[in-house]
Structure formats: C-alpha cells, structure tokens
Structure of Pantothenate synthetase:
Amino acid sequence: MKVVTSPEEIQILAQQYRSQGLLIGLVPTMGWFHEGHLSLMRRARQSVDRVIVSLFINPMQFGPGEDLDNYPYDLKRDCRLAEEVGVDIIFAPDKGSMYPEGFATTVSVSGLTSSLCGASRPGHFDGVTTVVAKLFNLTLPHLAVFGEKDFQQLAVIRRMVADLDFPIDIIGHPIVREKNGLAMSSRNTYLQKDEIPAALSLSLSITAVKNAIKNNSGQTITPADLKDIACQIVTEHPECEIDYIEIVDKTTLQVCTHLSEQSLLVMAVKINKRIRLIDNSLLMES
C-alpha cells in the first residue's frame, strides 16, 4: 500500500490508472478507522481495480466550537487497518496543500442542506461538498462509497454529482453497529463509560419506533406519534440534548406527513454538550 500526501501526485497516479483501463474507487474519510470505515473499503474493493482512501480532517466542515482540534488522528494505525482490507493508496494531504493561500472557491448545494444537520451546523455541507469535489477531481474515481449513517451527507453528495455531471457512481453502504446497537462513529471514542446508556438511547428509540409500527393494531399512527416515542426515550437521559429528531422522506429530506416506504427516522443528539451523535433508519423496510 502506498501513502500519498501530494495532490499533484495523487492526480498523476489516478490519470495513470485510467490510462491503463483500471477502475478506481474512492472512500473519503477523516480517519480514525473503525469497522464502519473498513466496510466501505471492502465494498469498494469488490467493484474496482484500485481503491483510494482519502484521510483528511477537513477544517471547512467544522464550525466554531466544534471538535476540529480534538478530532482523533493516528495515521500509522489507520494505514495498518486499511492495508489489511486491501486498500491500494492512502491519500493523506495536509491543510496547506488542499487549501493553499488564496483559496477562494466553495461548492454549495441548496435545498437539501437547509434542514437537519444543515440547520444546526451552518456552512457544514459547503465544507463537505467543496472537499469532496476536490477529492473527485484529484482521484478521478469511477465510483465512491459513502456510509448511510451520514444520510443527509449522502443525499447532498448525490445531488452535487447529478447537478455537476460528475461521471461517478455514488454507492451508499449500510450503517455498521456495535454489538450493543450503537452506530459506529469516530466520535464514539469521546464517550465515557457512564455515557454509554445515553448514547444507546438513539438506537433504542429506533427500535421502539419500528416496534410501534409493527404492533399498531389497525389504528392510524402518524409520524408525529412516532417522533414523540423517539423523543421520550432519548429525553429519559438527562445527559441527552436533542438537536433534531424527525421523520423525513429519504430522497427529498422533507418532513413526512404520513408513513411510506420512503420514511426515514433521522436524529442528532448531544451527550453532555460534548459529543454529537447521529443515527437513522428506514421505518418500513421490506
């Protein structure tokens, strides 16, 4: 496995791969790999000849007071894990090479970014789309794999790719969970042992909402009813502060007025004002 830090070098390598007729897959990450990340890499490995994993803690997607300075980072560890699952290249640039002096361009997607994480983290998705557009241009992938845990991000990336005519297949990969149900996240490393029950309230609320739908005895149950069930479970823990809990259409991200196979429960919760966790699930999966 090769580690590349230069944007110019990764683009030359990608051009060489394409000239040889090789298919390239990209997995964009901010590092501190866990099984969720590794599953994305394995998924890419199934479909392409060369897997590139970017590892860049993108300052453009962090707002004031967020955890940019404390975000976990261990390049040596991550390289070992990536090599074990067959990654060909780790692209690990520094901030100065990605955003050199004079950098003045932002890629912005409207509409899909106005609610949920976009409402509570102003500018976040502009940072995401800008860096992902750069990564696409540098690594020239035929496909890119993103985790469905960041469902709004996935929807925004798909919109950008469609609108800007990137010739890239965007693949969403299912959430990977701990044995206790907690959605895997690099930020889980911030959790103290006594905060685990509060963190688990996210996945437990998903289970409760699905059970309410399954056990509904012919009576009308509304998205508002289900939202109340989820909120009640989360707020049983005083450590939890709800950023949002909503039931939305999985494509438009608009709040649902009735349940359908498109209905997605999405949530963001802060634990002790320190750790922001997100989770989601389709509610009527076949």
The longest helix spans residues 196-214. The mean pLDDT is 96.
